[in-house]
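Supplementary Text 2. Reproducibility record for the structural model of the 160-residue chain.

All settings were left at their defaults, and a single model was retained for analysis rather than an ensemble. We include the record here because the model underlies the residue-level annotations in Supplementary Table 4.
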Amino acid sequence: MTDMGNSSADAEVIIYTDGGCSGNPGPGGWAFILRHVTTGKTIEKTGATPQTTNNQMELQALIEGLQSLQRPTRVHVVTDSTYLKQGLTEWIQNWKRRGWKRKTSNGLKPVKNVEHWKQLDELTQIHKLSFELVKGHVGHPENERCDELAVNAYKELMEP
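Retained model, structure tokens:
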């Protein structure tokens, strides 16, 4: 279940996410930082894909973060991706109602990145999410760290 709020007050964990590509499409990386609110324990995880898009990596970062949780959890998601936040808080219910189609000026079209969205839909049935949208590349420490981790992940993938 997603919550339109941006309060982390009742969160058990905070997941900071980011994803990016070298070229779009191109080699891409994702990263998340998961912080347990009570203990402060932090986990960082990254991954990379040889041919992907920025949006796919943004989605994958949250998928990976949510999949790392071992039980239903109240999660505060901090992201710089408007696409990710709006997709889960505003668009997804209409997409599902229309059979995973989105409205365009030329009628209904398939939702882009539908497999990622379906995975996120399943995960948001387990966990209760709230969202906070931050600006990227303006010095937010965890967002900057996720960006660094994601870039390093795809750079390592590109090394011979």
